[in-house]
Amino acid sequence: MKSYEVNFDGLVGPTHNYGGLSYGNVASQSNSQQSSNPKEAALQGLAKMKALMEMGFQQGVLAPQERPDVAALRRLGFSGTDAQVIERAAKEAMPLLVASCSASSMWVANAATVSPSADTADGRVHFTAANLNCKYHRSIEHPTTSRVLGAMFANQQHFAHHAALPAVAQFGDEGAANHTRFCREYGEAGVEFFVFGRSAFDNRFPAPQKYPARQTLEASQAVARLHGLRDEGVVYAQQNPNVIDQGVFHNDVIAVGNAEVLFYHEDAFLETDQMLAELQSKLAKVGGNFQSVCVPRSAVTVDDAVRSYLFNSQLLSRPDGSMLLIVPQECQANERVWAYLQSLTSSGGLIREVKVFDLKQSMQNGGGPACLRLRVALNETELAAVNPGVIMTPPLYGSLTAWVEKHYRDRLSETDLADPQLLLECRTALDELTQILKLGAVYPFQIN
Fold first, then answer.
1. Would you state the pLDDT for residue 24?
2. What 3-state class would DSSP assign to 239?
3. What's the rounded Cα separation, in Å, for the pair 159 and 153?
4. 100 near 15, Cβ under 8 Å?
5. Is 377 helix (H, G, I), strand (E, B) or coil?
6. pLDDT digits 0-9 by tens, 98-138
7. Domain 3-67+102-447 is in which class?
8. What distances in angstroms separate CA 164 from CA 39, 126, 276, one per listed residue?
9. Catalytic residues
10. Domain boundaries, the chain
């Protein structure tokens, strides 16, 4: 039976703005308060989805969230009609309104952790929505994320869904941004690689001093248990706390893996040699041949990696066995990074080609190509059981492009977030989107 890695890209929401909400994310903080262009952001994301579809890769789409989140503001004490809640929040606590308007759900690498059926005890694909409790604006996402994933992967014979972990610091979970799976074939048993920034209960693990470590070891272990993963099919590794303090807030900012290959920076991890040996040993037991590509700090500094998002790229397997790297335009603009990529692809190694995409709207808020996609390994039967409305096709691309052109603003500033009309525009757009994607009622305004 054939198997595939399907990339489900997050559709950028109508309230895409530069709120500077993510402490530890250099791009998010440095572009705070600039005006954004939601329409351009959504179209840039759709262009990447279309391009990968046309290259022959399986591509899907994951819907954005309702914003502003009026229910979240009500829980914080704002009352009245929806318009009055927004007006009061803008007047009394603008940072809370900005947080409630965040379109950060576009970065669906943080939506959930996914384990394929070949790895799990019950032979189903397992999803655990990430609690994202390190940042308030992201911590409010998981209830809708769970409903959307449930509508996309609804067949209980093939798919299992778990609620987010307890929303406390000890179980901080950032989803697939800190999770990679290695395998020989997507439909065969593999090794799931969980990267954590700190331990909540074991002080033997060092922690960063400047920026928070968002993923805990305990959260990763809990997800592995929920998914029924075998001990011999799991490897845990700690992110280097020094690179977290340099702006590497997730592992996918400093490393990316696919199939049997890990592409990583020399300074990405602690105990790197031990980690690589464990990955090699465990993958060999299921017939795989683990390989790694280390980018030396002498060629690309951590600062270069953070500013260019070299590692926040998509590493994709091609039919001939070689690999393609999808990178943001910022990599081409960085002289050292681009020189490294040119030498990498000309060396005849594992990564043979680099394709560049303009994702400036997302990049300026701290998310690159890898942030925008959630990877789900599926066999033919499971793929057939996915809601067909979310699988990218030429007609769906056309419908979504027209939908964005119809509903999205081409400029959004902080003051615009206080306009109650924005909420009405967002709800109108999302109601139409659920019909396009055949999701049913997944948003609070559709349910309540």
1. 44
2. strand
3. 6
4. no
5. strand
6. 999 999 999 999 999 999 999 999 999 999 999 999 999 99
7. alpha beta
8. 31, 12, 30
9. 174, 250, 371
10. 3-67+102-447
